[in-house]
C-alpha cells in the first residue's frame, strides 16, 4: 500500500502525574508492525525506550482536545500521545490504523482454524527451564499438547436419537471443562516475563476457544430443536421432553484473572434456582392488574451511582470484549460485563424521567397554546438530568420480556405553577363529579396523583412501552421506545427509536415527541455519557412546534452536554422562545417579550416516586425481578450479581425457546400493538370519552 511507509517524528507522551508530558521521538515500523520511541532523534540508533506491538491494537483520537490520541495495545499497555496540531494527529492516527489493520489481518491469515483437540499446559518449570525460554519465532500454541480425535474410517454416523444426545451433552460438558481449564491456565501465567497471560497469541487462543464453544452450543441446540419437532406429533399435549434443556452455560469470560466456580445446581443459592425455574407461558397471568396508589409508599431506596472512574482494573475485560466487536455492530445480543450496570431497570429509568411531576402537571395550566408548548419544552429538557442520573456512564438492566414497573407521585396542588383561571376545568360541575367517581378522582384531596406503568413488550427487537396519567388534570403521556445500540469504536451509541404522545384532554391537544440518542464515550479510559441528535415536538391542532438539538462534543474544542432549541408558531414562522445551556447543568430560556429565565437542574427539587413494597410486587415487576442482582451490586459482589443476572437471562431464553417450539405467541399485559406503535390498554382519552358519552346519554 502507498500508505504503508515508515513515518517518524516528535510527539508528546504522557508518562505519569509527576513527570507529565515529555517530548519523545517516535518511529512507526510498518514492516515489523511496531511503534517505537526514543529519547530524541539522535538516539535513534540505540535500543528504543519503548515498543508497542500494533497487531490487535486500538487507535483512537481523544475526546478531550484536538491534539491527543491513544494507542491501546492488545497486551493492555497504552500510550497516550499528543501531536503539535490536529492535522499532525490525523496523520499519525491514519497511518497507525492502516498498519494495525494490516498486521491484525496477517495474524488471521497465518493461523489456520483450530481442529478438535484436547489441551494441557506444558510444564512451566523454573524461570531457567527450556519451557519458559521462548524463542521469538515460537508460536504460543506450541506450549499445548495436541491430541486429535477422529471417527473410525468407513463408518457411517447413525441418525442420533435422544439418548445419543445425552452422550453428546456429556461430551460437550467435558469440552467445556477442558476449555475452562485452558482459560484458567492462561490467566494463571505471570503478567510479565517471556510468556505472560497477556501474550498476543494466548489472547487469540482464549477468544478462539470461546467462539468454538459458542458455535458447538448453537449446533447442539439446533439438534435439540430438530428432534423436538420430529417428536412433536407423536407426544401427548403437555409432555415435556426430558433431554430438552437449555444450552450449556459457558464460563464467565468477563471474570478477570481468577478461577471460575461452577457449582452443581443443588449448591446454587435458592434465589438463583428460583430465577432459573422457567414458568410455562400458559401459567402466566397476563390480565392487567389495577395498582392501588394507596398501597404504594414513598421510595426510600437511594441508590446513588458512583462514576466508573478509570477502568484500569477492567481493561483486559473491555479489550477482550472489544476484540469481538466490529464497527457498526448491533449490541442488542451482546452480553456486557456486570460492573457497568446501574442498580435499576431500563423501565425504572423511564419512570425517573417523570421526577418533576410539578412541571409535568403545570403544562396543562398554561393559558394559551404558546404557553403550553413552552411549558412542555421546559419540562422535557429538565427530565434528562434525573432520568440519566447526570452523565454517569453506567447502563440500566435490559428488561426481561413481560417485565413491568409501577409507581406514582403525589404532588401538592400548591406546588404546581398556575395562571389565572387555569385551575378551572372546561367541564361542568356535574360532569366533574361523575368523572371523579368513575376515574378514582381525588378532587377533594390537596394533592395531584401521577400514575406510571411500563412494560417490556418485545425482546427482539427490545421495545418498551410506558404510560403516565394525571386523572385530576386530564392529561396523559404514552410512548414506546426501541433501544438500538451500536459499537462505534471508542464509543457505544444507543438510538431511541419510537414516539411519545402527550394528551391534554382539557384543551383537546396532542403533542408528539421523540427522544435523543445516547453515547458512552471513552470506554477505555474514563467513561462518560452524552446525548446527541435532533428532537422535534409538534402540536398539529395549535400549529406550534419545537426543535431541540443535543450537541455532541466536536473534536475541536466545544462544550460538553450542550443543548439548544426554539419554539415556533408554524403559520408565521415566528420564534416565541429560545433555549440554550447544558442538559445536566443550567438551562437559559429567552422569551419573545425579552424576559429570560435560568434553571439550575442540579438544584431543582426532585419528587420521590411511590412504589409498592417488594413483598406486594408481582414476580415480573422490575425491583422484585432484579432484587438479587441489585443487592449483590450494593454489596460490591460482582461475581454474585453476574450469576443472578445470567440466571434471569437464561430463563428468558428458555421461555422464548419453549414458545417457539409450541408456536405460542407472547401476550402483553398492559400495552396493545397499533400499527408500528404500542398503546396503553386503557388510556385516559378513552376513559374520558366514555364518561362524556355517558353524560350525554343521561342528559
The profile of the biggest β sheet is: 13 strands, antiparallel
The average pLDDT score comes to 75
The total count of helices amounts to 13
Structural class: alpha+beta
What's the Cα radius of gyration?
Answer: 30 Å
Spans of at least 5 consecutive residues whose pLDDT stays below 50 are 113-158, 232-269, 276-285, 420-443
Helix proportion: 25-40%
Q: Strand tally, please?
A: 26
β-strand percent reads: 15-25%
**Spatial gap, N to C terminus:** 86 Å
The general outline is: globular
Protein name: Oxysterol-binding protein
Keywords: Acetylation, Endosome, Golgi apparatus, Lipid transport, Lipid-binding, Membrane, Phosphoprotein, Transport
Subunit structure: Heterodimer with OSBPL9.
InterPro entries: OSBP_sf, Oxysterol-bd, Oxysterol-bd_CS, PH-like_dom_sf, PH_domain
Question: What does this protein structure show overall?
Answer:
Residues 104-137, 637-658 are annotated as: Disordered. Belongs to the OSBP family. It is globular and about 85 Å long. It is α+β, with helices and mostly antiparallel strands and 699 residues long. Helices cover 27% and strands 25% of the residues. Helix 4 (270-276) packs parallel to helix 12 (638-662) and helix 9 crosses helix 13. Strands 11, 12, 13, 14, 15, 16, 17, 18, 19, 20, 21, 22 and 23 form a 13-stranded antiparallel sheet that branches. A seven-stranded antiparallel sheet has the order 4-3-2-1-7-6-5, with helices on one face.
List keywords for this structure.
699 residues, alpha+beta, seven-stranded antiparallel β-sheet, 25% strand
